[in-house]
Amino acid sequence: MSTHFRRAPAKKALPHPDLREIPVYLVLRALGEPLRLGIVRSLARADRPMNCSSFGLSVSKSTSTYHFKVLRESGLISQFEEGTSRYSELRETELEQRFPGLLTAILAAEEPAAAE
Question: HTH arsR-type domain: from which residue to which, for each copy (predicted)?
Answer without folding.
Answer: 16-110
